[in-house]
Design goal:
Length: 224
């Protein structure tokens, strides 16, 4: 549907460049100590950790250690972001992307704070509970929260467009794709296992994205 259109996507392109440059810096300087400093002070730390800084709700979105994590996030940003930027404009797209990413970080911080309060208030808790709670207080990095906000926007604005999944390689309507992913993330939050993935931040990105789209639609700034 969109392949024949010429789209200018300056915000998407610049966000991708920023993420790639940050990853290259971490990779190339991994033995010099600079990489560790970038991750220590750029990742989103638990709010009561000594390395926590308020600006980390912004910087964590541009840091990736795993090349595949970077690739899939940037691929999704390119596939969905350039369409959304073309439709709603670069300025509004930038606001939307940052709101989803920062909002996802805020949700992760609130969950970590609540988990920390629970840990300190309970003298004895189960091993499963410790595993679940510890997932909220680890440092968080990656653009996934903002990207999940983009998936939500695409699903709401193009509900019947078909998306080709990578695994398994089957087509699915965008509305079902977003619903399935959202439910999957919700259930993964509840599982008593440590996956190393901030599933709640993903849901947070979708939540903030939904609220912002609802607000814009109510003000009649966008239509879908």
């Amino acid at each position: 549907m969109f392949s024949g259109q010429r789209m200018t996507s300056p915000v998407v392109i610049n966000i991708i460049i920023a993420n790639v440059v940050a990853w290259l810096a971490i990779f190339l300087w991994r033995d010099s100590g600079i990489s560790d400093q970038m991750l220590t002070y750029g990742a989103l730390n638990w709010v009561e950790a000594p390395d926590f800084r308020v600006y980390q709700v912004f910087t964590y979105m541009f840091l990736h250690v795993d090349l595949w994590h970077l690739f899939f996030n940037m691929w999704a940003l390119w596939m969905f972001g350039r369409i959304l930027e073309y439709e709603i404009g670069s300025r509004r797209f930038f606001i939307y992307y940052m709101t989803c990413g920062i909002g996802a970080g805020v949700i992760q911080l609130l969950a970590g704070w609540a988990a920390g309060q629970y840990l300190m208030s309970e003298p004895i808790i189960s091993k499963d509970a410790v595993t679940v709670i510890s997932g909220f207080i680890y440092p968080t990095i990656g653009a996934s929260g903002a990207v999940f906000g983009l998936l939500l926007a695409f699903g709401l604005m193009h509900p019947n467009n078909r998306i080709m999944l990578l695994i398994p390689p089957i087509p699915m309507k965008a509305k079902w794709f977003v619903l399935v992913y959202g439910l999957l993330e919700f259930f993964l939050v509840l599982l008593p296992m440590q996956t190393g993935i901030a599933h709640l931040a993903h849901l947070g990105g979708m939540l903030w994205g939904f609220l912002l789209l609802w607000w814009w639609k109510r003000k009649r700034e966008i239509y879908y």
